[in-house]
Amino acid sequence: MEKLEKTVKKLKKSRRPGISLFLTGGYPTMKAFIELVRFIDRESLADFIEIGVPFSDPVADGPTIQASSKTAIDGGASLRKISGNIRSFRDEVKIPMILMSYLNPLLAGGLEKNLGMVKNAGFSALIIPDLPAGEAPEVMTSARKNGLDIIFLAAPSTGAARIRKIAGMSRPFLYYVSQFGVTGARKSLPAGVSGKLRSVRRQSAVPVYCGFGISDAEQAVTVAKEADGIIIGSALIDMIRGPRERYFKEIRKFAINMRKRVENIR
Amino acid sequence: MNKKGYFGKFGGSYVPETLVEPLRVLAAEYERYRKDRKFNEELGELSEKYAGRPTPLYHSKKLSEHCGCRVYLKREDLCHTGAHKINNAIGQALLAKKMKKSRIIAETGAGQHGVAAATVSALFGIKCQVFMGAEDISRQSENVCRMKLLGADIIQVDEGTRTLKEAVNATLREWTRDPENTYYLLGSCVGPHPYPMIVRDFQSVIGREVKKQIKEDPTHLVACVGGGSNSIGLFYPFFKDRETELIGVEAEGAASLGRGRIGVLHGSRSYVLYDDNGQIVNTHSVAPGLDYSGVGPEHAYFKDLNRARYCRIGDAAALKAFRWMVSSEGIIPALESSHAVAWVMKNKWKKKDIVVICLSGRGEKDLDIVMKG
């Protein structure tokens, strides 16, 4: 069984909510990004690491990830470079890795070849924010062929029948977008998020992870009560600034605190 | 086009999940109203009495003399607000009204679609926000003033090249924030299904009128292509008329069909200008409405079918054609439309050729650019 799927199953069994941390590949620099991945892995600060391929036109992302993507692209980051760098230490990483990419960087130069490269780098699954479930089935076929799962997204606007359909295609979990709008830390979560998560979980045959806008332990607790896991993106990226030792410390504190708060929630 | 919104292998709906349901609803509502007698009566009435349709098909003697064949101009520049953009804006605003939306959002490059959206929003009493790149705001200041006077909020977009591509990104993001109450009035035949179809349908009035107005079958139809709405509107009713050649003219520095590869941008699969890493590349054109890295999926389909031919014209030739039109015809064409005129002036013609150029808009908005150049 795949590393990612195994971890998701284990978490589900132990009833502990999973935590996924998101990093923009190549941000703030390729070297610092690699150190971040190794740091999160070494200190077991997350159950999964989600790595984003920076894209010039990230329509699902808010200001934080737009800015980190631009910095990364300006620094020369690309799908090829990120995969190449990750691949060089893939056997040393314990935490399963998920690749987030908009569709165009995956298509450029050939989907089949790119997905082979992604698999080879050690990734277990893909999140493609501009590929809604059911569109371009050849992407799923190609991912399967290369031994990669696709994690599809569901949103507050998604109806029950479609959630069942998405859950039927999504492996090893379904990514529920907590709110309308784009990614980015929010002061508060929408009022109905707990109820909505409960109903999504009822419809879904696979575990449900929730992301978009979760920025502190308080919000993480709210979400983790109803979801199988949480995904933290922009809030983490916002910490990456200034001297390395300082943001390492901040991330460590943030992740450990978050883990502690959600650990025995059920 | 098939049920899932594909023209051959182009089109589709590549959007964040949040927009899947709003797009499904939009497609369903559009299907309902496109056949609705009352809706079409209202649309017809507004097109005629408010927007000034039908626009004339003008036989330009001087262009004909210059080219050695018969050349006609389809005068979309005479539409209310000064460009063909109003055709689509009226249709979609009517749809927004029927769908009881309280807010219209729109992207704009040259400002022509922004002005059209602001105009129909004023007419229907719907709040309007227009997203526009900072670079375009500075080079199309006349249109910015018009939109503000019409009561629209202008949201300046500062990311990337600060032109049309980024304006579309910003508008799509805004739509995901509140799709329930917001109508996204997209201005070109780009974006996810059903937009390329809706925009084409509302712009097809251009080609339908030409068919009625011209006595003999035209041999060539020529129109500029940025996203491609005026050209698809002219071409589409002639799709089955195989004897009529369809020619789309792109800007040299923004030729998605001429130099792009198949990719996904702004919700659809089409020809797109991107680098080896899949990053969308920056474009340049003196005409802001053509300054775009993508193109409508139906044009990509026409290209692959060899049903239409796509050519390129650079800034200098477009500016030359602009000046020629002003001094010889007494018509100030938009810089976008000047690309189509420039291609016709450059091409070699036979005496029996009958050429129709879509003069998609007027050029008062471009005087700053032309006078500086």
SSE map:
The complex is a heterodimer of chains A (266) and B (373).
Chain A: H1 3-14, E1 18-24, H2 30-42, E2 48-52, H3 63-74, H4 79-87, E3 97-100, H5 103-107, H6 111-121, E4 123-127, H7 137-145, E5 149-150, E6 153-154, H8 160-169, E7 174-177, H9 193-203, E8 208-211, H10 217-224, E9 229-232, H11 234-239, H12 244-263
Parallel strand pairs in A: 1-2, 1-9, 2-3, 3-4, 4-5, 6-7, 7-8, 8-9
Helix pairs in contact in A: 4-6, 10-12
Chain B: E1 6-7, E2 10-11, H1 20-34, H2 37-50, E3 57-59, H3 61-67, E4 70-75, H4 85-98, E5 103-108, H5 112-124, E6 127-133, H6 134-139, H7 141-149, E7 153-157, H8 164-177, E8 182-184, H9 195-203, H10 205-213, E9 220-224, H11 229-235, E10 245-251, H12 256-259, E11 261-265, E12 268-272, H13 297-304, E13 308-313, H14 315-329, H15 335-346, E14 354-359, H16 367-372
Parallel strand pairs in B: 4-14, 5-6, 5-8, 6-7, 9-10, 9-14, 10-13
Antiparallel strand pairs in B: 1-2, 3-4, 11-12
Description:
The complex is a heterodimer of chains A (266) and B (373). Chain A is 47% helix and 14% strand. Chain A is of the alpha/beta class. Chain A has a single domain (3-263), classed as Aldolase class I (TIM Barrel). Chain A has a nine-stranded parallel sheet. In chain A, α4 packs parallel to α6 (111-121) and α10 runs parallel beside α12. Chain A starts with a helix and ends with a helix. The model of chain A has no long low-confidence stretch (mean pLDDT 96). Chain B is an alpha/beta fold and 373 residues long. Chain B folds into two domains: 7-45 and 85-198, Rossmann fold, CATH 3.40.50; 52-83 and 204-372, 3-Layer(aba) Sandwich (Rossmann fold). Helix content of chain B is 43%, strand content 18%. Chain B contains 16 helices and 14 strands. Chain B has helices at residues 20-34, 37-50, 61-67, 85-98, 112-124, 134-139, 141-149, 164-177, 195-203, 205-213, 229-235, 256-259, 297-304, 315-329, 335-346, 367-372, and strands at 6-7, 10-11, 57-59, 70-75, 103-108, 127-133, 153-157, 182-184, 220-224, 245-251, 261-265, 268-272, 308-313, 354-359. In chain B, the strands form four sheets. In chain B, strands 3-4-14-9-10-13 form a six-stranded mixed sheet, sandwiched between helices. In chain B, strands 7-6-5-8 form a four-stranded parallel sheet, sandwiched between helices. In chain B, α11 links the parallel β9 (220-224) and β10 (245-251). In chain B, α9 (195-203) packs across α11 (229-235) and α10 packs across α11 (229-235). Chain B starts with 5 loop residues before the first strand and ends with a helix. The interface between A and B is large, with 42 and 38 residues.
